[in-house]
Design brief:
This protein is α/β, with parallel strands linked by helices. It is built from 19 helices and nine strands. About 55% of the residues lie in helices and about 10% in strands. The chain has a seven-stranded mixed sheet, sandwiched between helices. Strands 8-9 form a two-stranded antiparallel ribbon. Helix 5 (about 110-120) links the parallel strand 5 and strand 6. The structure holds NADPH dihydro-nicotinamide-adenine-dinucleotide phosphate.
Length: about 475
């Protein structure tokens, strides 16, 4: 009997998604490549492990896999982003037919997705670039899905995707059509950019409580538990509470983990993409750079022995820290959404921001109460920072953020995301900035010209600055 849906790539995500599809009653064809003595019978062995996969068929031959699927074939590719995706698509091309639908669920770069979509569309094959968030557990129990591509193609697989997706508070699936071309992967990339900063802000709050207030990890976990209610509740805070409580014998596991963070590239892509659009995403970039600095362990150890700075002794107020935490998160989300809006306008993707943000309310790594608040605000405010709610929150928290930044700096504690959120907020709310100095400098050394305040839409001017 032919099956309803195919999955290629049974790694961490492919396996969990396969079980999720099966748990939702779909019959599956599952494929994993064969590598002699290394990857043999991966699909059939996997199927034999889980009773819910009893209606599934396993393959390591691509042709028989493709032929086992009902037409039009619906195939989800869950392999590592990059060359592997191109190889899988190339191999599939000699077996699939016009009308079939390929979905790339990996973290592919949105520009690659555009190109692949174009190539496949010339052959009559539908292509969907879909962001998937939620990690291994989310993939199994309900991920957040961000599909982009042609709407007609999406409609053919919508029922499958919405079935396996997480559900929001109103039981709506956290899977909505994002827009054309690579927009789904773009939105997933920005999701990861927001995620980088969300993680870093928590790391900074931890650092402040651990190294300024000298609290033990479990004491910090208790404080975070009090934060993990109402407007500041979120998934990343929740998992950090568990992390801080974990012990190996008498030692906190966190103290045994090397302080060098790594990354897989989506943070760098976000920084590059936002720079290309001229849309500031300074928190994400600060978080990315914090990872880069953390990786310089040897250099840090050497320099730490050369430099010893004086420290202040005042402690931070935990209520102020909570306010600063939420304010930094607001700026982070604001910047991320602004990048998406910019991309949508620039690339003509017609992204519905409210729809898009709604898929982040559950099942994904950045799921939070703040996202829900943002959705209710986007409805009536095109710029969330102009909403009464955020104006009030920001006005009442600005002082706390400043206190936290100043105290941390006095203690020589690096807080790139907290300080960047304050810098950004101070810049974006400043009526007159310093762009005039930059323009004058550019005109001085490169005759780049400038506009005058008394004639902003008039001609550009050049000055002979030396005379
Ligand atoms: P894994 O490394 O666990 O699995 C990768 C899969 O791709 C394996 O089945 C592997 O086969 C297969 N593969 C690799 N190269 C090839 C190739 N050239 N031809 C055929 N198959 C190949 O990765 P994940 O499941 O974690 O991730 C898959 C994608 O999903 C990535 O793009 C990742 O960024 C994205 N993603 C991951 C998340 C996570 O939390 N892990 C969350 C969201 C997205 P084999 O076993 O034979 O090596």
């Amino acid at each position: 009997m032919k099956t309803e849906f195919g999955i290629i790539g049974l790694g961490v995500m492919g396996k969990s998604l396969a079980r999720n599809f099966a748990n939702n009653g779909f019959s599956l064809s599952l494929f994993n490549r064969h590598v002699d003595n290394i990857e043999e019978n991966v699909a059939t062995n996997f199927i034999n492990q889980f009773s819910e996969l009893s209606n599934s068929q396993g393959f390591d031959n691509l042709e028989t896999f493709v032929n086992s699927l009902q037409t039009p074939r619906k195939i989800l590719i869950m392999v590592n982003a990059g060359k592997a995706v191109d190889m899988v698509i190339d191999n599939l091309l000699s077996h699939i037919e016009p009308g079939d639908i390929l979905i790339d669920g990996g973290n592919s770069h949105y520009k690659k997705t555009d190109k692949r979509g174009q190539l496949l569309s010339n052959k009559g094959i539908h292509f969907i670039g879909m962001g998937v968030s939620g990690g291994e557990e989310g993939a199994l129990t309900g991920p957040s899905l961000m599909p982009g591509g042609h709407m007609d193609a999406y409609k053919l697989v919508e029922g499958f995707l919405q079935n396996i997706a997480a559900k929001d508070d109103n039981n709506n699936p956290c899977c909505k059509y994002i827009g054309t071309e690579g927009s789904g992967h773009f939105v997933k990339m920005v999701h990861n950019g927001i995620e980088y900063a969300e993680m870093q802000i928590i790391a900074e709050a931890y650092s402040i409580l651990r190294f300024i207030n000298k609290l033990e990890p479990t004491e910090i976990a208790s404080i975070f538990e009090t934060w993990n209610h109402g407007d500041t509740k979120n998934y990343l805070l929740e998992i950090t509470i568990d992390i801080l409580k974990k012990k190996e014998g008498d030692t906190y596991l966190i103290d045994l983990i090397l302080d060098q963070s790594s990354h897989k590239g989506t943070g760098s892509w976000t920084t590059i993409a936002s720079a290309e659009l001229g849309a500031p995403f300074t928190l994400s970039s600060a978080a990315l750079n914090a990872r880069f600095v953390s990786a310089l362990k040897e250099k840090r150890v050497t320099l730490s022995q050369l430099y010893e700075f004086n420290e202040n002794t005042s402690l931070v107020n935990v209520d102020s820290l909570k306010k600063a935490y939420q304010l930094a998160r607001i700026i982070n989300h604001y910047q991320g959404l602004d990048v998406i809006e910019n991309a949508s306008n620039t690339y003509g993707w017609h992204i519905d921001l409210k729809n898009t943000v709604s898929v982040w309310t559950n099942g994904c790594i950045i799921a939070s109460e703040l996202i829900k608040k943002i959705i209710s605000i986007i409805e009536t405010n095109s710029n969330i920072l102009e909403s009464d709610y955020f104006v009030e929150v920001i006005k009442t928290s600005h002082h706390s953020l400043k206190d936290i930044v100043l105290t941390s700096l006095n203690h020589n504690i690096p807080i790139p995301c907290f300080s960047e959120s304050l810098n950004y907020l101070n810049s974006v709310t400043q009526e007159s900035g310093t762009g005039n100095i930059i323009q004058a400098q550019r005109d001085y050394f490169g005759t780049h010209t400038y506009k005058r305040k008394d004639d902003p839409t008039g001609p550009s001017h050049h000055t002979n600055w030396k005379s």
